Give the backbone structure.
Amino acid sequence: MKEGWKRAELGSFCEIYQPKTISKKEMTPEGEYPVFGANGVIGRYSRYNHEEEEVLVTCRGATCGTVNISTPRAWITGNAMVVHPDSSQASKPFISLLLKGALDFTKVITGAAQPQITRQSLAPQLVPLPPLEEQKAIVDKLDRAFAGLETARANAEANLENAKELFQVALDDAIDQSSTPKRNLGELCILENGDRGKNYPGKKALTSSGIPFINAGHISGTQINWAKMDYIPEEHFNRLGRGKVKEGDILFCLRGSLGKFAAIDIKTKGAIASSLVIIRTTSEIDAKYLMFYLSSTICRREIEARRGGAAQPNLGATDLKKFMLPTPSVGQQETIANKLEIVRRTTDRLQEEYTRQLSDLDELKQSLLQKAFAGELT
Amino acid sequence: MYENTFNNIEKTLRAEEGVSNELDYVEQISWVLFLKYLSDYEGDRRDRSELEGKSYTPLLDAEYTWDTWASPKDASGAYDHNAALTGDDLIDFIGDRLFPYLGGFKKPDQDPQTIEYKVGEVFSELRNKFRSGYILRDVLEAVDGLSFNTQDARHELSELYETRIKRMGNAGRNGGEYYTPRPLIRAMIKVVNPKVGETVYDGAVGSAGFLCEAWDYMRQGEVSAKDFDFLQSKTFFGQEKKSLAYIIGIINMILHGVEAPNLIRSNTLNENVMDIQDKDRHDVILANPPFGGGERKEVQHNFPIPSSETAYLFLQHFIRKLKAGGRAAVVIKNTVLSNTDNASIALRKELLQSCNLHAILDCPQGTFQGAGVKTVVLFFDKGRPTKDIWYYELDPGRNLGKTNPLNDNDLAEFVSLQATKADTEKSWVVSVDDIDEETYDLSVMNPNAPEEAPLRAPEEIIDDMAARDEETKGILDDIRGML
């Protein structure tokens, strides 16, 4: 242990107790003083039972082990355990950080159905106890570090969104060129609905193997979830009149999450459910360019303008045919699509980096706490 | 006082095989309530006749009165178990004798204003669904405890009945056919503002929600005895095709205090609108006609604009049923404003030219439980062609659902703004001159909706990202310095 530090039982230098509970009925919204319960302020009351602020640990329920600090002159109720240090041995801000960083609450929480913390389980926990001077230094350093980490976290989250927005802006910019002639989707592609007639496979017709039967639920983030696929027997598939997919087809969602789409990028047989429509490109339009169009804001506006305003938003294939696409030459479409592909890869990488940064920041916070209580920070 | 009785009846009915859903429940409890009501009503008439020294002819033959078969009492006035029918005897009596007798009141030339007419209509169509005479016996005993004689009793019963109807309305597609959310009804009534002396008509009366709420509205404040009588007997008129809804409408109006409701059971669309004369017209029309349907060609021929869409035919009916200067508020699906088929265009043109369509209320998803379509309410007056239409987009600020339905507060802003036709984020005026003369498109398109924040230029976004990265770098350097 570091010079001047000792290990002590929490209960040896702190008073640990649960204050008297008041029921919900007794609390009044116009009460002068705040009531602190399991998770911060839960109401107001006409009296207070604690003059100063106190360090609280939630001792009941799913949020057991959360550390809070009350405000001066508050009523603290029984779902919060007060940990009140002897001021000659420890300060309250230090105790608050100590409880967050030097205590393994899994060892303290008891009860499977109703998690709870009791005085008996908390008091004997051994914790490091540095001298008061050093406690102050630790609190100062950690407060400053954590404030900075909060800002850093907010920045990372904002930049994660920024990266997504950047891609959308680049996409819209590339697709929505006002000088480009527009043509109907129906002229540029073949739209094919599934067979919705008497051969339509109901729930009972689905099997665990066979020919894939794809519905809107299998599509997310422009990918088809083959792992959770439904199937129909080959002979049923043969009975269907249309809606059979080919490699390269784009499946577009007409119902529910309107506008979702994904490409069939593997060689496979398959049929679509009534919630989807097949968009099959002709030689007039590049498939990658089309998919970028489907992600663009102008496509989204077309969808909004035509969706049936019913409980189940839906679009028909006839509506889809009327969508106006800016249609440069196929060569130009390919160029645009390739450029956007590069932009997308870059922004995807940016998103990955910021996501990693977020988890790094969390790790850093825990690591700092650990260092502090090992005596290595001060 | 009656809440327990109702709850007990429900508990009892749960064991009854023949009553399997909310619709059955409301239907079957309704005929029992109706017969008890009839018994109290008869009692009243008899007493009044005695007081006035007039002779009195009972409506029902002795063996079919409530006191004989449903709740016989002995000399001391207590319930006579021995005389009471139960079990299979009771079921047989109901099916073989009581219902046919009551149904027999329906005669071809019967004056629809009479109570006999209503009895005949109800019991010629309705079927008893009780299979256990013992369960029915329990229900009869419970209902016997209800009294229809005082206003308080009726008021409480009407509230209890309304909650059951609402449950039925929420139970699924069929139930919703007869139930319009009461807050919407109240808002429509406030705008249309029916006054004593006027007649109020609902050609698709269902559970009579509109007429009952209008009755409550028009009775507010000081109402003279003469006015009260006029309200009671000469004000409210309704028609309903389906027998289940018909009996619910009748009971509902009775419970609200209208003793002999002027509800006729017939298919409104069977009337040729060209035959409607001024004496058949009304001052105020409030309705939520059924959508979809699919009317036969013979029915369609009754209308200048034939269409298989039931709501379109109703709208034409209502336009012609309005007196000059009359006011109407009709709920209809929003596609009537935008559909481009010939019938829709013709209908809109007719509405705009023969009436003053002065307001359209756009209702949000979930206003009607169980119905998928989005609806609007059309407010129109008869007499002048349309000049300006005031649109209001209702946005309660939350998703509506069974546990979170529309309430009066949600509509308060609409009612107050409607008076001034104010221009706000949710309301705007469209002049008839600006309407496309080929399509007469009236779709709800809010020009005042706040524009969604446009995406920033790429350079801006990148600058923002770089700045944040700089800041984060500074923070991390600072922390490193601490270590």
Q: What stands out?
A: The interface with chain A takes residues 334, 365-366, 371-374, 455-458, 461-462, 464-465, 468-469, 471-472, 475-476, 478-479, 482-483 of chain B (CB under 8 Å).
